[in-house]
């Protein structure tokens, strides 16, 4: 199956959805630059994909350092001859309850989910505009639809990414560039492993297939699974005083980003 892309870059590619997406495109003939902190995980991914006939180039990098990320990816964009597809997927999540708010936790979330994602996309966009070709993808979350109790920083970080991509997409109407925002619900990944029983949790392979197909269709926005997406929209309209009751029923923010 031809993907239509020659090169791609995926952040948070050492585990979870990032790893799955990197493999999905690589085995379909795309040269994938896999970005994450954990070099050994990237090397394992490279070897597994090579056995299936694909090419993954490990790029050890910590996207929480936004300045270094922007500089490194600008150089990679140039040295690779141009990236056709860039997926800003790296993300972290931890509770930030108001009554016990921890600035280090808030800072970690913002460094990766906001500054790291923005640096990733900003590094490659100018060259894509010059070529009038390219595809930016951001992996947000259903949690972006509303500030959730105990998850204020995570919800806000994903709301930033959703709004940032929406603004870029509006600016690029009529060009050869595409911008896709993906809002997953809960996916069984390394990041959600400690969250206990989750509602409507998805298998990562199924989630990656859905996401990859949405990217191939160049959809502006893709939220899934549908029941969770509809619930997320409903919660966005719910008064604050009612939301605590809804949370006690087991609903919470979608969480599927990858630590990297």
Low-confidence stretches: 249-253
Shape: globular
- Residue share in β-strands: 15-25%
CATH superfamily: NAD(P)-binding Rossmann-like Domain
Mean pLDDT: 88
CATH class reads Alpha Beta
CATH architecture descriptor name: 3-Layer(aba) Sandwich
Determine the fraction of residues in helical runs and give it as a percent range. 40-55%
Give a count of the beta strands, DSSP E runs of length 2 or more. 7
The tally of structural domains comes to 1
Structural class of the helices, strands and pairings? alpha/beta
Distance between the termini: 28 Å
Q: Enter the CATH topology name.
A: Rossmann fold
Series of secondary-structure elements, N-terminal to C-terminal: EHEHEHEHEHEHEHH
Instruction: Give the biggest sheet.
Output: 7 strands, parallel
Rg from Cα: 17 Å
Output the number of helix runs. Answer: 8
Main β-sheet, spatial strand arrangement:
3-2-1-4-5-6-7
Characterise this structure.
This protein is an alpha/beta fold and 260 residues long. It has a single domain, classed as NAD(P)-binding Rossmann-like Domain (Rossmann fold, 3-Layer(aba) Sandwich), CATH 3.40.50.720. It is built from eight helices and seven strands, in the order E-H-E-H-E-H-E-H-E-H-E-H-E-H-H. It has a seven-stranded parallel beta sheet, with helices on both faces. Strand 5 (134-139), helix 5 (152-171) and strand 6 (177-184) form a beta-alpha-beta unit. The longest helix is centred in the middle third of the chain and has 29 residues, at 103-131. The model is unreliable at 249-253 (pLDDT under 50).
């Amino acid at each position: 199956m031809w993907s239509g892309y020659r090169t791609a870059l995926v952040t948070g590619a050492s585990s979870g959805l990032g790893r799955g997406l990197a493999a999905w495109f690589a085995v379909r003939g795309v040269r994938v630059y896999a970005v994450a902190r954990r070099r050994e995980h990237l090397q394992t991914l490279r070897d597994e994909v090579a056995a299936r006939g694909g090419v993954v180039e490990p790029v050890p990098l910590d996207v929480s350092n936004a300045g270094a990320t922007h500089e490194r990816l600008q150089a990679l964009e140039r040295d690779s001859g141009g990236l056709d597809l860039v997926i800003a997927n790296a993300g972290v999540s931890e509770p930030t309850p108001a009554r016990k708010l921890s600035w280090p936790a808030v800072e970690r979330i913002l460094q990766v989910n906001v500054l790291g994602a923005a640096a990733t996309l900003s590094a490659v966009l100018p060259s894509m505009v010059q070529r009038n070709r390219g595809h930016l993808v951001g992996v947000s979350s259903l949690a972006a639809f509303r500030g959730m109790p105990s998850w204020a920083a995570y919800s806000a970080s994903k709301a930033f990414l959703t709004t940032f991509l929406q603004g870029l997409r509006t600016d690029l109407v009529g060009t050869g560039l595409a911008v896709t925002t993906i809002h997953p619900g809960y996916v069984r990944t390394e990041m959600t492993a400690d969250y206990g029983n989750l509602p409507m949790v998805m298998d990562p392979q199924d989630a990656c297939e859905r996401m990859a197909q949405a990217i191939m269709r160049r959809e502006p926005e893709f939220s899934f699974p549908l029941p969770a997406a509809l619930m997320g929209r409903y919660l966005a309209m719910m008064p604050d005083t009612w939301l605590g009751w809804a949370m006690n029923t087991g609903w919470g923010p979608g969480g599927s980003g990858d630590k990297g």
